Amino acid sequence: MTSPLPFPAITVCNLNPLDLSKLSVERGKALDLAMSDAVYSLMAQSKPSNDTGTDGVDPDLMSAALTIADMSVADLMFASDIDTSEFFTSCQFGSKLMDCSKLFTPFQLMFDSVLPPATRRTSLKLTVYVNHAGYSSQVNELGAKFHVHAPGDTPDMMTSRHVAPTGFSTSVALRMFEHEYLPPPHQAFGDSSCTDTDSAEFRRLMDGDPPLYEGSQGGQYSLDACLAHRGFVQVAD
């Protein structure tokens, strides 16, 4: 059974390693990383041979380095940000090109937009530019994260990612699925359910050699085992 979904919300996060607060990381960690990277840049020529970088650098030294560089933490983070007009190269919905600046509402380089319901013949295509100047020597990553999610939900921007080598282009297709568990009597095998103890699939799990469920004893099949085998059914695509 499938039913149409309205076009989901799209959240785009500029993966700026110098300001991890954009990824909902504690602000303190973002400040430490920014200062550490500044120290690393100033001390690059005298970097220890064991490649330990600036781990464990004294906070006072970090502050002194920022003073020497004549940059505040905010300045350092701002310098690695990328403007919306530069970030989005093109935005296309179906066959129609759209104004990216009007399609998305920026909030700390995170975007969210709810579009009219889409059909299978329409799609939203976003082309973005990732500025290599935002590269962090401490984290060794930069880029952007795209999440499709239900309108009103807050996505987890720290989940897994698709990685492309620096200097290359990549394309990724995203689709949204919505699942829900079936209510009692807990459909499990085609048209049968976990209360249909005489069904072929129910008996197969119990009578297999060895039984697919090791907890079955004396011809008694556990309802819990049946529920454990029950998969969730896709109800919307």
From TrEMBL:
Keyword Membrane: yes
Topology in the lipid bilayer: Multi-pass membrane protein
InterPro entries xref list: ENaC
MF annotations from Gene Ontology: sodium channel activity
Subcellular location: Membrane
GO cellular component terms, semicolon-separated: membrane
Highest taxon listed in the record's lineage: Eukaryota
Keyword annotations of the record: Ion channel, Ion transport, Membrane, Sodium, Sodium channel, Sodium transport, Transmembrane, Transmembrane helix, Transport
Matches recorded under Pfam families: ASC
Family statement drawn from the similarity comment of this UniProt entry: Belongs to the amiloride-sensitive sodium channel (TC 1.A.6) family.
Protein name stated in the entry: Uncharacterized protein
Source organism (scientific name): Batillaria attramentaria
